[in-house]
Amino acid sequence: MSTLSKVNELNARRSAIVMGGGEEKIKKLHSAGKLTARERIERFLDESSFVEVGAFVNHRSTDFNLAQKDTPADGVVTGYGTVEGRLVYVYSQDPTVLGGSVGEMHAQKICSLYDQAIKMGAPIVGFLDSAGLRLQESVDGLNGYGNLFVKQSLASGVIPQITIVMGECAGGAGCIVGLSDFTFMITKNARLFMNSPNTIEESGSKGVTFETIGSTNIHTEKSGMVHFQYDNEQDSIENARKFLSYLPTNNMEDAPFYEVTDDLNRIDSVLNSIIPDDINISFDIKTIIASLADERELIEIQAQYAKNIVIGFIRLNGATVGIIANQSQEKEGLLDSNAAEKGARFVNFCNAFNIPIVSITDVGGFKSSVEEEQRGILRSGSKLVYAFANATVPKVNIIVRKAFGSAYIAMNSKHIGADIVFAWPTAQISVMNPEGAVNIMYAEELKTSPDPNALRSSKIEEFSNMQASPYAIATRGYIDDIIEPAATRKRVIAALEMLYSKREERPAKKHSTV
Fold this sequence. Notes:
- There is one protein chain.
- This protein is 37% helix and 18% strand.
- The chain is α/β, with parallel strands linked by helices.
- Strands 1, 2, 3, 4, 5, 6, 7 and 8 form an 8-stranded mixed beta sheet that branches. Strands 9, 10, 11, 12, 13, 14, 15 and 16 form an 8-stranded mixed beta sheet that branches.
- α6 (174-178) links the parallel β5 and β6 (182-186).
């Protein structure tokens, strides 16, 4: 056979692989509003940058009906390319090939990609669209799952891992999502679940449907598994590209710096009047976050889950910064189990990838309820305390209003290692709110007083000045400075500039047990 004939054969084989399960199945995908596995990669990566690896891999099993079936690329497209010129590894499951099911070689291709990504120190992004385990390969398929989970575990904290759920993600495949750092999911055509509705046999579960256990809404609002929700694939892909620009390529590098067009010394007079006179009236903490951020832009994470705490990324002086803030518009800003664990996981990610943390404290305490006690709010709160205490990245805290009790300690206080703590003049820092403290400390006096209201008001003012005032707390060194709210942006930027070269060692250990 001549060289030209061999080249023609190569091109013919590659063309067949590119077609996946065939033209009819591709048309069916398109009619459902879905992209093919390769189209997803092409739209995600910079134009013409994709290099495929493992295109000629096929299944090895001959059990059942597999001997007669061809599985182009074994149902998953793998390779690398660039996003805004930065190296990224990517895999995309192909639902036109045996439903994108995971078999031995399918998993091996993704594992090999992980090996390469870890060696090169580059993020890995997976497009998930799979019917689950390939039943014909049985334990070989399960072995593939296990090998993949090991690779993900090794990569955790070393390279960013992002999954984008575009279709089915069922059973053990859902652990791929659970082991990732961030997950995007589209509203239409996507489902994420461990057990299908017909296997769930619980009291009162007759109405179980995929909508109630595996929909995007469930995982953005209830389980917290999904960090970003979009209506269609194109929006999800575009926003995943943008989100990646906030992350470093690995744990040894900083996130990209971008040219700053916003004024570093911008003064925002709105902040001088944003705090209501009544401590019980809520306000939108995102207004403060936007005032801090370059171009007032916040990339909020898990926006629909545990809304009483806001997490996300902003840029300050062109550099990525992690934001965590109490939101008084939800559950009065009190910390509950979900909010504490949401915050802890985010702080852990920032610490692993050298991203400075800025916290904005306005917390009246931990939520008090039987349900929260039974759910283990003590355990969840401890995770948040540990995350901040363990973090060695630059940590800045801004106390804008309420900072009461153990919840104040948990929100990046000086007591657990914050490098710089600013307070606004509106801040109140105490074991509890002044009114509650006075009601307890002066219970007997209030009962016998001829004018309990006047006594209560007098004692609240006294307590506020002696114990809860930011000036009183600053005398003890627990606050580094009391600042004008309007100048918060420039003060935080200056603090982070000072902390840029921070180095902090921790005792040698294998890992924590929290």
